[in-house]
Amino acid sequence: MDWALDGGRPSLDLVNTYRDRKTGGLEMLREPADLVAWLAATGHPGARADESALTEARALRDAISGCVDAALTGSAPAPGDLERLNRWAARRRPAALQLTPGLTLTQVPPPDVAEAELAEIAHDAVRLLGGDERGQLRVCASPACGVRFVDRSNAGKRQWCSMRKCGNREKVRLYRARLKDS
């Protein structure tokens, strides 16, 4: 699957699992296996998911998206979005560590990898929306895309989610328009 991992933050990468927002939308998390595949693609293998986990992941994604949209417009987020985001962030727990017989540290995987990662993602969203990078939130300028990302460019004027994707397509479109007009 072609995941949009151009957000610059895990929470935005989750938001971007709902694609093409400007043209009606495309759900990338259609079944539990999609959530498992997305978690693996973002560096969190070993997760299991059922319909309930998928429903929770989508609801968290939508709550983060609502809060991001509020930040982009300078408005207050919906109370339900804020409550869901804060509730998920409160579930975050530090990784459990144990000593091996050789006295080296090993990290014990959580019992529910998907739930633990969603809590981490919620925590990331809270830090993003409550921190300095909130002012760097952007939406891809492509007329079809809608991917959310953090603009870390030196000038702070990044327009495209990715130059490999939307930026390149726009350059090709402009080039062809210039050729046509010549």
From TrEMBL:
<dbReference type="InterPro" id="IPR010852">
    <property type="entry name" value="ABATE"/>
</dbReference>
<dbReference type="Pfam" id="PF07336">
    <property type="entry name" value="ABATE"/>
</dbReference>
<protein>
    <submittedName>
        <fullName>CGNR zinc finger domain-containing protein</fullName>
    </submittedName>
</protein>
<dbReference type="Pfam" id="PF11706">
    <property type="entry name" value="zf-CGNR"/>
</dbReference>
<dbReference type="InterPro" id="IPR021005">
    <property type="entry name" value="Znf_CGNR"/>
</dbReference>
<dbReference type="InterPro" id="IPR023286">
    <property type="entry name" value="ABATE_dom_sf"/>
</dbReference>
<feature type="domain" description="Zinc finger CGNR">
    <location>
        <begin position="137"/>
        <end position="178"/>
    </location>
</feature>
